[in-house]
Amino acid sequence: MRVLGIETSCDExxxxxxxxxxxxxxxxxxxxxxIHQQYxxxxxxxxxxxxxxxxxxxxxxxxxxxDSKARDISGIAYTAGPGLIGALLVGAAVGSSLAMxxxxxxxxxHHMEGHLLAPMLEEEPPDFPFLALLVSGGHTLLVAVQGVxxxxxxxxxxxxxxxxxxxxxxxxxxxxxxxxxKLAKLAEQGDTTRFRFPRPMTLRPGxxxxxxxxxxxxxxxxxxxxxxxxxxxxxxxxxEDAVVDTMAIKCKRAMKQSGLKHLVIAGGVxxxxxxxxxxxxxxxxxxxRLFCPRLEFCTDNGAMIAYAGWCRMHDxxxxxxxxxxxxxWSIESLQPVTS
Length: 339
Ligand code: KG4
Ligand code: ZN
Fold this sequence. Notes:
2 domains, single chain, Nucleotidyltransferase, domain 5, binds 5'-O-[(R)-(carboxyoxy)(hydroxy)phosphoryl]adenosine, 5-stranded mixed sheet, alpha/beta, 42% helix, binds zinc ion
């Protein structure tokens, strides 16, 4: 079975082709960063319009790269949510239309399941069960994973998602959009001993997160000490240290609580170097292993959607006759994959 995957949930048009025998055969991405940069964040209407412009040339590109003809594709997977409705509709409409004209099944994929399964595309994929920390621009989830579609949310953010906190703090420091990677780069120059930010919700039991206070803490620190570049870097460092430390504390707690030793991290923030290093040390201490996607598959991409769709095609492909997209959609509501 060969599945074409389409990702258009936010500001990246991603395509991928995953094949049962050959694995990932091709993938392509167009990032809309330049379009949204001047507005300091994603403008949904502009995102949808650009997906319309990019999607078919990218389909063509990966079909050529993987040496696939239409008859070689046996299913289409598109991101059906959560995400920006107008953006999702572009991928869903194109995916469903291609499936109809090629007379093949299609499935709507949950974006966060795509992220969660992205490490399966690596050479040494994790075995089930494992614990997953999913950290993106829209979500922060700690999930006990028993199999594909067998997810229990152990903890989540009660306010800003981790990536959102990175982006808002970066914007406040004048680093522009997208802020996460820029803040992380600046933090490398920061002095880790100058400021200490709180580790939110770590002193009470539980696995939920709260990151919006850190952004406020950064703002008040900047107002009090700001003005020079070194202070900016020191604040970036204190912010990153606090986020990384908080996540490590919660992951350790979740490992103890669930008995799961292996940890998957995925989603845009899992590209963060300090986070990867810190969690690697943690799982080694706990006698487990850390699994992460390669850097380009931490952030949004079509390869993870092709893979997740490939997992679900047998169960859901025939049933998916109309397309529906959802701005909100709990990962816990997904059906377990039976075959
Ligand atoms: O998964 P993703 O590409 O899109 C969503 O599903 O939201 O995640 C994007 C998020 C953004 O908030 C971005 O700032 C953050 O991931 N991000 C990072 C890094 N690279 C991307 N945050 C911290 N450090 C990074 N290196
Ligand atoms: Zn994402």
